[in-house]
Automatic annotation (TrEMBL):
SMART domains tied to this protein: ARF
Binding-site list for GTP: 38-45, 84, 141-144
Encoding gene per record: Arl15
The species this protein was found in: Nothocercus julius
Superkingdom to which the source organism belongs: Eukaryota
Family to which the UniProt record says this protein belongs: Belongs to the small GTPase superfamily. Arf family.
One Pfam family here: Arf
Protein name: ADP-ribosylation factor-like protein 15
Cross-referenced Gene3D superfamilies: P-loop containing nucleotide triphosphate hydrolases
InterPro entries named among the record's database cross-references: ARL15 (IPR042292), P-loop_NTPase (IPR027417), Small_GTPase_ARF/SAR (IPR006689)
Keywords on record: GTP-binding, Magnesium, Metal-binding, Nucleotide-binding
Amino acid sequence: MQKTPTSSFIFSSWQCFRALCCKGPPPPRPEYDLVCIGLTGSGKTSLLSQLCSESAENIVSTTGFSIKAVPFQNAILNVKELGGADNIRKYWSRYYQGSQGVIFVLDSASSEDDLETARNELHSALQHPQLCTLPFLILANHQDKPAARSVQEV
């Protein structure tokens, strides 16, 4: 059978159509559950808003917790952000179950007292049975402020 311009077009169209239709939906991206902790004002909400390409205007401190899905090309991070106020920190451990990683955000420009409190909370989280084997990301935020400490100082 000799191909005519019309049959060649139909054949090419059929191949394109078949490639599109038979390919099926893209494979689902894996999802990972993370917990994001740190003292009030450390920048947890701002960080997550930035990662989700949301406006950084009108951000208020989280009371309780919030959950955000942070999409990446090859995965989705479901981040449970826990409020950092003193009266909320005592409940953090109730939200650790099922976490696959931890983001600990600290304000590198905070006072010595706040930095010591953050250090104690970090050590407590590192020793918690549900977190101690998980990967930790420790983010020294507010590096743009004049009072920011270096990584070594933190």
